[in-house]
Each structure stands twice: as structure tokens, then as C-alpha cells.
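B., you asked whether I could sanity-check this one before it goes into the benchmark set. Here's the sequence:
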Amino acid sequence: MKAYLTVEKIMGILQISRTTAYGLISSRRLKSYKVGRLVRIREIDLKHFIEGKPSRKNKK
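And here's what the prediction gave me:
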């Protein structure tokens, strides 16, 4: 099973604000998934973001 992280968890890991976290998501620099009204980020996508690897763009 793939591990998914909340925006709050990402904020803690990256030490960024909520505004910055959602900015990264809305600009598609950090790949995310919507589960109903919730936003989740896969651990592997966060790892790629931290390493500077390009991620695939979100599909809308």
C-alpha cells in the first residue's frame, strides 16, 4: 500500500507555511491527489520534490 501524507505533515517535514504548501500544490511543483475534499501527497512524490526530480503533472 502506498503511503499518503497530509498537507499538515508536509508542512512539518519541509518547515513551510500552509500558504506555501498549497502554493506548491496549486503550481503543480508538488504532485498531489484529492480524496473527496482532502488533499494528499504520496511519500515518493515528496521525495522527488526534495531531490529536485521533476514529477509528472497532476491531471485535472
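One thing to flag: The longest strand covers residues 38-42. Otherwise nothing jumped out at me.
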